[in-house]
Amino acid sequence: MTSRPLTGLTALVTAGPTCEPIDPVRFITNRSSGRQGYAIAQALADAGARVTLISGPVTLPAPDMVTLIRVQTAEDMLTAVTAHLPCDIAVCVAAVGDFRAAHPATQKIKREQLGPEGALTLHLVPNPDILKTISVPSPARPRLVIGFAAETQNVEDNAAHKRLKKGCDWMVANKVSEHEGFEQENNTVTLITPEQTDRWNTQSKIDVARELTRRIAAHFKKEEATS
Ligand code: CTP
User: What's the pLDDT band for 117 if we cut at 50, 70, 90?
Assistant: First the structure.
């Protein structure tokens, strides 16, 4: 295999958390650092792909030779993703918030506005599912769609089920807990494809990204050979 086997292919990577406003100073987010997604964008670019990275707010520097688009909310991320279709490869690594405030306040919510007990009830509505949306068969569908399933229990079963539910081609199952996955250097993942369930050793997020890129390159090489 050449050192730049993805030359001529376009890739889209989502990364980081999303950030959903409650009011101008408060928001709902999660613990995603963006490291795994940024490492994948870098590895795909190193392999020759033309990469667009659509990222929620993180503190990481932009990877080399990658077009970085910064977004805040899940809706912004979906808009940016669909604007970059069609493409050959999509890897959805972002920890997209599943819910957003139905009516974010335009001014800071003041305690005096709250009832006598000081409780605040937030009405949350579901966010769009970006991975599921782009996996729907259509002329714009990426040729290979890969998701990352963050699971705290029954990791492989849940991720295999999620792959079918979302309609993506591959799912990378990712165990997350207080000490694993989020905000860590290393990652322990299982790659689930229609053909196999492949457990990888715990390794750095950079090595996970390089291995996934090798698998992607092998997939396209095989596809080319059979077309
Ligand atoms: N995902 C997405 N849009 C969403 C939610 C998730 O694109 N609104 C993508 C993630 O980028 C990831 C995959 O779906 O590739 C799985 O995300 P995960 O958080 O594990 O699953 P959820 O769909 O949120 O399901 P649950 O929270 O029930 O585990």
Answer: confident
List 173's β-bridge partners, or say none: 149, 190
Judge if the beta carbon of residue 129 lies within 6 A of ligand 1.
yes
Range with lowest mean pLDDT among 42-46, 63-67, 79-83, 183-187: 183-187
Report d(CA 89, CA 92) in Å as an integer.
10
- Quote the mean pLDDT of the chain: 95
Indicate the residue type of 62: A
Q: Which atom of ligand 1 is nearest to the CA of 158?
A: 29
Going by C-alpha positions, the residue among 145, 9, 14, 143 that lies closest to residue 70 is 14
What spacing in Å lies between the alpha carbon of 165 and ligand 1's midpoint?
Answer: 11
Q: Hey, is 92 helix, strand or coil?
A: strand
User: Is 61 buried (19+), middle (13-18) or exposed (0-12) by CB count in 10 A?
Assistant: exposed
Among 157, 137, 141, smallest CA distance to 149 is for 157
- Please tell me the distance between residue 180's alpha carbon and the centre of ligand 1 in angstroms: 17
- Token duo for residue 123: 């009405």
- Residue 145 reports pLDDT greater than 90: yes
Which amino acid appears at position 151 of this protein? E
174 has catalytic annotation: no
